[in-house]
Design brief:
Blueprint lengths: L1 H22 L5 E5 L6 H17 L3 E5 L6 H8 L7 E6 H6 L11 H4 E17 L7 H10 L5 E4 L5 H13 L5 E4 L3 H9 L5 E5 H9 L3 E6 L25 E9 L4 H16 L1 H8 L13 H21 L6
Parallel strand pairs: 1-2, 1-3, 5-6
Antiparallel strand pairs: 3-9, 4-7, 4-8, 4-9
The structure holds D-malate.
The site of D-malate has 17 residues, from helix 2, helix 7, helix 8 and strand 7.
Length: about 325
């Protein structure tokens, strides 16, 4: 009797979930960006969600909830209802680096989220203000080592991609501790770099390409195997003599854990259609963002990349000795 009641309950639950997925989405969807407007996470979220909205037949509203290197908003989304109406544009910082830096992070990337897929892969560059003393990566490293008290490095807060990748850059090149200025995103950080308020930073290409091309900041090196087609004059870190510093970021759509499989599949399909759309892909590639391949844009592909980068970053980040309680 008890067994029959349980089976009946489970079947009703399953049917309810199936109906929910079938009718999804019935109202606008919120896509949380855990950083300020105008930065790479925000720009990629807006480009991709515009096309996804068309496929899904509902508006996707991008909401910027910046703070604590993206970890505050990420924790908030982890605790939201897994109904497909609250999503997050997670990224390598919040979902691979932050666990190695925060002692009591309020979420576990792999356990608390349902992956949808990667929306954009973002080569990292080292950039300096346009009248900075150094004109090459080597000159920047030498200058910062000789003048550690005089230099300010911008980032988007502890755990962000800009913060994390510059830890790697500094540890590989032997740069000592310097003054860091944390912003709510690299959108506002870049504004200050252009204005000459800070000296340099490590950031994703999406934000930087137009400003480097316009000569508003100096692109010293790109941390990828090959030069970017949108920045043909910027040497790779290997060409600059520091080939050990190679890294790209990524931005990816996720939902709170427990998202029904049918909704996950609809979102993954909409993401795939957005990235397969020529005009949408061009908006991303014009900014140097690499369009994820067929595997990377799937839930399984995202889960694999998240696991890979969490492992990759754990050693160097823990070795940096930076821990936030
Ligand atoms: C980061 O450093 O993680 C990002 O650039 C943040 C942002 O999108 O502003």
């Amino acid at each position: 009797m008890l067994r029959r009641t349980f089976i009946g309950f489970a079947a009703a639950l399953l049917m309810g979930t199936a109906a929910m997925a079938q009718n999804y989405p019935e109202k606008p969807i919120t896509l949380v960006v855990a950083f300020a407007a105008g930065g790479p996470t925000d720009v990629i979220a807006r480009i991709v969600s515009e096309h996804m909205s068309k496929t899904l037949g509902q508006q996707i509203v991008v909401e910027n909830l910046a703070g604590a290197g993206g970890t505050t908003a990420t924790a908030k989304v982890a605790g939201a209802a897994p109904d497909g109406y609250t999503l997050i544009m997670g990224q390598m910082g919040t979902h691979a680096a932050a666990p190695s830096l925060y002692e009591s992070l309020k979420y576990k990337p792999a356990e608390d989220f349902t992956p949808v897929g990667i929306a954009g892969i973002t080569p990292i560059l080292v950039v300096a203000k346009k009248d900075f003393q150094a004109n090459t990566l080597g000159e920047l490293i030498d200058y910062v080592k000789a003048n550690p008290d005089k230099v300010n490095q911008a980032n988007a807060g502890v755990g962000s991609i800009s913060f994390t990748t510059c830890i790697l850059f500094k540890s590989i090149t032997g740069i000592p501790k310097i003054n860091e200025v944390a912003y709510k995103g690299t959108g506002p950080a870049l504004n200050d770099l252009v204005a000459g308020q800070v000296d340099f930073m490590c950031d994703q290409i999406t934000n930087l390409a137009p400003q480097i091309t316009a000569g508003n900041v100096k692109g010293l090196a790109i941390a990828t195997v090959e030069r970017s087609p949108v920045l043909p004059d910027v040497p790779t870190t290997k060409e600059a003599g520091f080939g050990d510093f190679q890294i790209s970021g990524w931005n990816a759509i996720m939902a709170p854990k427990g998202l029904p499989a049918g909704i996950q599949a609809k979102l993954a399909d909409a993401l795939n259609k957005a990235l397969s759309d020529e005009a949408t892909a061009k908006k991303l590639t014009d900014l140097g963002t690499v369009v994820p391949n067929a595997e990377e844009r799937t839930p399984a592909g995202l889960a694999a990349v998240m696991e890979r980068d969490s492992k990759l970053l754990e050693g160097p980040l823990k070795a940096s000795g930076i821990t936030i309680k």
